[in-house]
Amino acid sequence: MTDHKENVRELITAGGKTPLCFLHSFGCRQNVSDGEKILGSLCSIGYGVTDDITAADLIIYNTCAVREGAELKVYSLVGNLKNLKKKKPELIIGLCGCMAQQEKTVEKIKRSYPYVDMVFGTFALEKLPELLYKVLTERKQAVDINEYSTGFPEDIRPVRTDKFNASIPIMYGCNNFCSYCIVPYVRGRERSRRPEAVINEVKELVGSGCKEIMLLGQNVNSYGSTLEDKINFSGLLRMINDIEGDFRVRFMSSHPKDATNELIDTIIDCDKICKHLHLPLQSGSDRILSAMNRKYTSGKYMEIVDHARSRIPDFSFSTDIIIGFPNETAEDFADTMKIVRQVKYDNIFSFIYSKRTGTKAADMEDATSDEEKRSRMKELLEVQREISSEGFRRFIGRTLTVLFDSDDGDGMFSGKSDEFIIVKAEADSSVIGKVKKVRITKSFNWALQGEII
Ligand code: SAH
Ligand code: SF4
Ligand code: F3S
């Protein structure tokens, strides 16, 4: 078998200098995590990493396809590279990730951006050395969007940029086919990673000083369904909770159709699991939920919320909401607002529906005007601002656990609490990467402020 890695290393280091790569990941934490693996692969070949795009010998955009806006942004950035490539013909430009996995993207790149050297999809991480070899030796566009693996790129060690905060994919792909969503088409079928592989990675990270671990999957609640091991997500959480060390655990995303009281009880009973659940609602209208193929009703959703609140009365929830799904009526939107007011989320990520070619919803006629959608979005944001600013007041006088990760200037530092809320406090730079108890003294509608105890 040809050792593409060694061959590429010889070619790129022939001049005696360390070649540099620049990578930017768009989209969700899963994609960012893939980006860390791509960097890992490049570093193992001999590349150094730079965040100065003009200094790079290899530029890779790791793309997202979830909404049209994400795709347009990438095309505009790739367009901007044309001049750089003209000045520096030996520059290699690559496009990968979810957007690259689509046939229509490959066609458009071939047609309009011929100076892009490589296009590879979400299954081809392990093929990167081979692709690079092709580009370096043949100097023509290399494309690989085959759906190879049903497994994981376990052998690539990620290069992580954050020492204290790490993501670990516990599963890949998605089988849910929500009617609006492109993810199942670009990430393939759901597959879970073996629990030992996950546990070992957590142990290694904790051993190297990591304080917060985010477990990733498109629907972590169906973790284990493709494994021979008899384990579900709650079981995995309990195993991780038993690992010794000073760290906390979060996860996303949790599909309401598979969320159980067992999950809520596990979160509440395990001391290392953050007491917060991101539970994407998408819509509060049962008619729309059914058209979205979400497989739960607003009633089932509220049962989960009620169970959590029966144990912790102000248990923290956040959510994703899509505004303007095809033919969403004023009544449907009112149903969404009803749930928003009932749950009192600490945070909402809201998106205007974006038509994705190839999905079921793309064929649905849509009579709702863009203006109406924008006005609903505005209303949702206004109501949520009030809810979170009122909700955040409940923390005044309480002590929260905060992992500090950012220097905001003027002696102020901030980080996230267990509840995933931004907390600010006066400190010095030694606080970065530390977990501190903070007594909350002030609340804003987007953050809290307090004093480190
Ligand atoms: N697997 C996760 C979601 C991944 S996509 C889950 O099921 O929760 C992240 C969010 O993007 C979704 O929750 C949804 O709110 C939003 N989204 C997905 N497709 C979209 C589309 N076509 N238009 C607008 N928002 C979309
Ligand atoms: Fe998309 Fe639904 Fe899968 Fe989430 S669960 S990735 S929204 S299809
Ligand atoms: Fe994530 Fe975007 Fe792909 S949200 S899974 S990077 S389409």
Structural class: alpha/beta
Small molecules held by this entry: S-adenosyl-L-homocysteine, iron/sulfur cluster, FE3-S4 cluster
Q: Give the integer mean of the pLDDT values.
A: 95
**CATH hierarchy, class of the largest domain:** Alpha Beta
| Strand percent estimate | 15-25%
* Full CATH superfamily name of the largest domain: tm_1862 like domain
Strand order of the largest sheet: 2-1-3-4-5-6
Task: Describe the structure in your own words.
It is a single chain. The protein has 13 helices and 19 strands. It is an alpha/beta fold. It folds into three domains: 4-144, Methylthiotransferase, N-terminal domain (Rossmann fold, 3-Layer(aba) Sandwich); 165-394, pyruvate-formate lyase- activating enzyme, CATH 3.80.30; 396-452, OB fold (Dihydrolipoamide Acetyltransferase, E2P). The protein has a six-stranded parallel beta sheet with strand order 2-1-3-4-5-6, with helices on both faces. Strands 15-16-17-19-18 form a five-stranded mixed β-barrel. The site of iron/sulfur cluster (SF4) has 10 residues, from helix 6. The site of S-adenosyl-L-homocysteine has 17 residues, from strand 13.
